[in-house]
């Protein structure tokens, strides 16, 4: 016996008449269908009411391959070689789990569900297989079941008689034969049509409930276990942060599940009331205690750059309608501690494009709110906003080191290339012209989709940006368009070589221009070069986002980028000078003297010289960067300590760190997730200054503060459904307060697990498996 499988319906008329085997299979199938048709009319074996012939086709050739029998009750599939034997083994012997609900062949009849009266396949037979046993027997049984409930009053008797009387309207006529009651089926019809089927099923359910009125309750749980389970459910709901809606928890099926496992129903009031308040206060108290215990901290601010630009969505048409790239932003604040952990603080809304002055005020208000009167505990800010507000705060507060987000700097480099490198502009314009023409011309579009399905086994059009805005989200969509074109290079070649396209070229000059682009080998080389450079920068940006580097790593990252870009120029025969100029311009915009200072003071980057000493890597700094190190150290200490700090810096430069401790700091181990070698204990660099290098009293104060500073502002990632929900309810004070509390609880938990991922990204991972081309369709946030 075969296992239950789902097989597609087959059309015997579509089989090949040239293949003898296929023809024989089709003939066998048609014969079984004919036999079954006669049987359902009372001129054949009883089991054909439950067995249905199906034709199985070869998935490659679509030719008939075999004939199977499918049980209409349980959908099991069998060989069609011996239907009688299949019926005996599957139906008579009770193998079919659902056959007991029908009328088994034999001397005694089992009750037939009312709903089976709606299908001719529910008709059963007596043991002699010649007379139909009456489908109305089920109604008689129903009459007995209702009557046996203990209500023998006239009302119930009349109701039972009414049920029997109603058989006349179901298309049956009664007769008597050898003291055996029977019914002859003419045609099963209900006065309400197909809509009566649901009502009939409800009637059957009512009969079952009357027959078995007691429903076994779910397992009994103690109050303690119920409270614990509800707490876990609430925590899961909060931490999902919008992926699960309130209405989902009130869904009848979910409420039925809770009842089944012995838990009470839960409503949105339960989750948005006292339970949420308690969770929020617990997280808030823990967060404040950890900030108090730390000697200093850094504030991270992410979201100032608009991620929801008007052109953040793109289309497969050439629509060029443009609107203002302005929407309200959702800015979040968190706190980075010296231990390497992060704590969520709050989220605020910003309206129109904010001024540097407004950003400065919000940042300082946040610093004061976290620090209270001890504002010097906040030794710096890292933000994705423009540097002007950060510089102003740094000038006003000499102990602060305010940094632009390193991740945004790398991503903005793509925008720089798109605006300043002619190669990018040329490839972008030709790609847009090609994509718009292919998507908008009906004949060309149909040919493109035909060949794409033929070659790539997928359909769809080329993704096209909505407008020519230079915001970074639109740059991402231009990259996605290039990716589509690159993956469909062979398809586009086939389109322009098609005879129908040649006819279009005779009348349309744009078609001729597009054909010239497609057949130009130089275009494809340039497109490959642009795609490779975008992929290079994007991969490094992704690494920065995952690694969340400290500021000491900034110089090495940019040097690595320079090397890779130079290799790219050589590989694709691109002039180096213009490319290097763009890279250096972006580097200077993002550079901060703290990069060089942390690079020099972090024992992680000490280099062993010929004498065996581990010395700071001053030789990798330019003369200007060395001056930056001196000036920053002087700014971060008091005037009285400035001279001492510089003397200690000279000593550090000449003596460095004891080799054994330097080697211990630089010990690496393989990461179990990524497989890459990583520093075994990232906190060692700071701890060495606080213990082994305690003689550097002034310089050590600067070192321990700089070494732990983060170079990126990104932290807890919100799900889009939750952000949308907040935006909808932000004008309600109560709704916004609840939303802020839910964000805080969710972020506090995720950051405690050092989980910086997004559920939407996790859910997308299974669908990304097997892709040969990396997907560049991600919204690049803007940068300073």
Automatic annotation (TrEMBL):
Question: According to its UniProt record, what is one Pfam family this protein matches?
Answer: DUF7963
Q: What segment(s) does the record annotate as region Disordered? A: 1-25, 110-134
Residues annotated as domain DUF7963: 16-100
Polar residues bias located where? Answer: 1-18
Where would you find the membrane-spanning parts of this chain? none
- Enumerate composition-biased segments (Low complexity): 110-124
Q: What is this protein called?
A: DUF7963 domain-containing protein
